[in-house]
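stage 2 :: seqdesign
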């Protein structure tokens, strides 16, 4: 991971917006709104059954993540959340897709899984929190893998 890379501005702005919301119901409404914006991975990227290497470990919502290289060292992220009740996972997937797709791999690799705590606060169980942090970690791992591939002669 490149510790000198800045977290993408779109994500920083969204986190700051969530930080300003102290009312639990309003925060949950915002997260539900993002869950409604969730878009499943397009068939041009992956088909069911999804490959195990794309699966997020420890995620109760059966989430999968893909990162496709784009121009200028950027990545485009795609997600699948197989559990129809995985509202939190869908919200996080939509947030990450909106704020990280199009960012440079170095920036994506710098995102800390603790953003889950900033977004969801104490409103999730430990198991769900681990799964959501696993989604962020999977995104970071894909970005780091892309960076390693670029540096290999």
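stage 2 :: out
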């Amino acid at each position: 991971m490149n510790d000198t890379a800045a977290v993408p501005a779109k994500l920083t702005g969204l986190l700051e917006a969530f930080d300003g919301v102290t009312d639990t119901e309003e925060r949950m409404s915002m997260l539900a709104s993002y869950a409604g914006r969730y878009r499943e991975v397009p068939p041009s990227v992956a088909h069911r059954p999804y490959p195990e290497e794309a699966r997020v470990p420890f995620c109760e919502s059966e989430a999968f993540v893909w990162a496709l290289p784009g121009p200028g060292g950027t990545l485009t992220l795609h997600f699948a959340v197989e559990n129809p009740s995985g509202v939190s996972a869908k919200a996080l997937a939509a947030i990450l897709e909106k704020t990280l797709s199009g960012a440079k791999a170095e920036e994506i690799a710098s995102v800390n899984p603790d953003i889950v705590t900033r977004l969801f606060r104490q409103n999730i169980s430990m198991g769900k929190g681990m799964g959501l942090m696993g989604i962020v970690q999977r995104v970071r791992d894909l970005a780091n893998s892309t960076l390693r591939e670029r540096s290999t002669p």
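stage 3 :: structure notes
- The chain has a mean pLDDT of 93.
- The chain has six helices and two strands.
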